[in-house]
Write a structure and sequence with these properties.
- α10 links the parallel β17 and β18.
- The protein is of the alpha/beta class.
- The protein folds into two domains: about 220 residues, Alpha-Beta Complex (Spore Coat Polysaccharide Biosynthesis Protein SpsA, Chain A), CATH 3.90.550; about 160 residues, 2-C-methyl-D-erythritol 2,4-cyclodiphosphate synthase (60s Ribosomal Protein L30, Chain: A).
- It is elongated and about 85 Å long.
- Strands 1, 4, 5, 6, 7, 10, 11 and 12 form an eight-stranded mixed beta sheet that branches.
- The model has no long low-confidence stretch (mean pLDDT about 95).
- It comes from Kangsaoukella pontilimi.
- Its cofactor is a divalent metal cation.
Length: about 375
Amino acid sequence: MSDPRPLTHAALIVAAGRGTRAGGEIPKQWQPLGGRRVIDWTLDAFRASPHISRIVVVLHPDDMGRLTDADLLTVAGGATRAASVRAGLEALAAKPTDCVLIHDAARATIPDSVIADMCRMLEEHDAVAPGVAISDALWTTDSPESREVAGTADRSRLWRAQTPQCFRFETILAAHRAQEDDAADDVEVARRAGIPVVIGPGHPDNIKITTREDFARAERILKERTGGMDIRLGNGFDVHRFGPGDHVTLCGVDIPFDRGLQGHSDADVAMHTVTDAIYGALAEGDIGRHFPPSDPQWKGAASRIFLEHAVELAAKRGFAIGNVDCTIICEFPKIGPHAAAMQAEMGRIMGLDAARISIKATTSERLGFTGRGEGIAAIATVTLIAT
């Protein structure tokens, strides 16, 4: 009887190469594409798939600090592509999956349909890979240097290979463990081990970024897919308790009060919330990732330092801030009389028209810790628009 349990699928993203043909000062997977890094688009494609439960990324040893997302397992790659893939497979072996989809990080424009089709085909086959039939005529020359047509080649049995190349996990793990030589791809590793590989539907948009021209083509594909717009929403939430003091600082404005807010920095709970919302829209974690509270240099730091960093990061990623909506939750002090000053100060720090910044307040009807007057909470939503 067949196992009725649904198959589990992990994605193994190979990002350990140097990509010299693409030019630039850094490897192509870290270069900007449509306001983000190439690898960010690739990762989000697999994150968005309901079929993928785990993601392992194989990085060059020099790049191990470039990805810190909690949902990713990162491992150092080897001297060859095959060695890098094996490192990723061995990392997965600690908690095996039924199937693994091995994908090049440089294929950032992979459509959702390719991932879904490959997972579906793995229900019937041990090894599958997407391919696109060659439709153009193929010419031959007498030498690599020649530009004179010497003949034509039969294209009827030729396919353009793509990734992800997909396998039952134990099958491809054993194949990689059994060989030491490098291979062009994982289909070659499988075939050397005698594993039949079935070609599934690829897609013309699933291009591999190799040269500078490919960046422009990939950006066109992504813009068409998103309707030409990339709009992000991020939210933030933060809490700080009351302690000794004679004022609270909210959105950069000092408000006289018989207590202060406690925190590692200046405890500006509202500004922290807006900052976290920007980081969230960028999928960049929170303030703690960029300014760890364990680092003494940030003790008592002005929160504008964090906000300015988040705004600068958004700009570097190609985003403008559309609007900010922040709600401060407390019984006291009264926020209304200071809201305009808060909007103005936040606008000054962010380089944003104050009319795009909403600062408002509410109580919790004397319920919970804010209702008991133990502290202040804040929530915020930020919109980012690709420029």
